[in-house]
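hey so i finaly got around to running the thing on Response regulator from Pedobacter frigiditerrae. pasting the sequence first so u can double check i didnt mess up the copy paste, my clipboard has been acting weird all day
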Amino acid sequence: MPWRLKNFKAFTLQDCNANFIELIEKTRAHIVMLDFPIDGKKCMEILQVIKDRYPTLPVIAMSCNNNINTVACAKGFDGYIEKPFDIDLLYRILRKIHRKACRTVPNSSKAHHHENGAPG
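ok and heres what it spat out for the 3d tokens, dont ask me to read them lol
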């Protein structure tokens, strides 16, 4: 099902260069999804830049890394989804995290969302 039918807009960057912050600002992103490769070093740098600038913006890790559930929460992601994933599961997780983010007051504690979308 196309993203627009689920009331989502997706913007992608092939290569995360300096333009990613500009894209977040321009699109007024509600959620950021980062592909978390096996080593995840560059992804962690990007996460830090996003969280320094937008501390309440939810950032979700997508990965085929078999321990993404522990890595994502430990490193400061707001949630994760294991690849390959079911698109309906992705929609549920995005909606749940977006609703929570809309209710969250800045500087409040963050809940980590797991693959079933439940807070951890």
